[in-house]
Structure of Endolytic transglycosylase MltG:
Amino acid sequence: MESRKKRHQHEIKAAESLDAAQNKLSNGKQRKIHGTRNRIIAVVLAIFVIVGIAFMAKTLLTDKNAALNPQDTTFKTVTIPTGSTASQMGQTLQNKKIIKNSKNFYKYAMSQGAEKLQAGTYQLSPSQTTQLIFEQMTSGPGAAPKLPKGYVLVSVGQTADQVAQHIADEVQGLSEQDILTALDSKALINQMQKKYPDLLRGVDQSNTKTGKLLDYVYPQAFDLSKDKTANAVISNLLEVSNKTMQPYYGTLKENGLPTPNIMALLATSGKSEFERRLAFVHKVAPYAQELSKKYGLLASVSIAQAAHESNWDNSKLSSKYNNFYGVKTQDETPGKSVVLDTTEYVDGKPETQQARFAVYDSWKDSMREHAETIVNGNTWNPNQFKDVIAAKNYKQAAKALYDNHYATDVNYTKLLVNVIETWNMQRYDK
């Protein structure tokens, strides 16, 4: 029989063994619990990350203040009338298709200080965010358009030097001279002409002295953030311009219209105005040719004067009273004349005056009487415009009109020639 001491030792060992087994089981369970807990935490965290990313993506894609169309970097002329509220401004921007929603613009303006918004005429783009538009409109009409980093705006009337400076300021590593050299590079001109023949149609005949390729750059904003060389910059400008002008190439070819002049009109006045003016030319040209055969006045001059004097049949005098040429009269017979404000140049300076103008039954009556006036002169001098009739081309005729005192504007000759050449009106003289 075991002694009490030995039995006690066995009991201690048995107890220790039992404790060890229990501890092993407990630790296993704990490790299992901890492992499961960690896996659950990891899954939850993953769900949170996925949801967060999805939320961020949705926010970015549905940002109420994002640009209407980031790809459309063309600019539109937008006039905000004096006294407009923030809500009315937003509606104007929406109507002009500059922003997505007028209410969102209003909310943003109210949060940022709507009282800082200024009325006036702006150049705005669907590629601008609400923030950029707001910043521009709080800076005032005279401020340059607000653009994202890396973007450069080419505007109507900018010189090659100005464009080169803006590009050099924005593109690191390029100088103004680098850009100017590329704009006149014969090798680059030949390369771009082969690549974009419709865009650069007529570049060989261009009489531009410097920055020749700039004439074929559509006035809009350009993303130059990825361009490293001057040639890459110019190639980018022409590639984007070609895409913008693509819808018009057929019409330009059909009518023999020069790309540069039409681009400027499209950029400032839009597609509808371009189409309206072209329709005007097509409407009056056949009758102008008839009058040319009968009276000897060049058809191009007749059309150009009608377009210029009537603001393309958009003046009150032409649209309401069929007077294309601003013809004045002394006839006070009711229905035969109307008194309106007019701009006259005195010593080279414009002055607003009142005058009595003729009223015609039709626009053809207006064109016919104009041709008769050029041929027969006026009551005090029947040879008043003899040099106009004697002119052999539209440039001579345009100069003669000013020299023979048809108009008082010192720029009249230049204006007529520009209208004729922009719309290829000289084709109607053949």
Q: What stands out?
A: Strands lie at 76-80, 120-124, 151-153, 221-223, 337-346, 349-358. The radius of gyration is 37 Å.
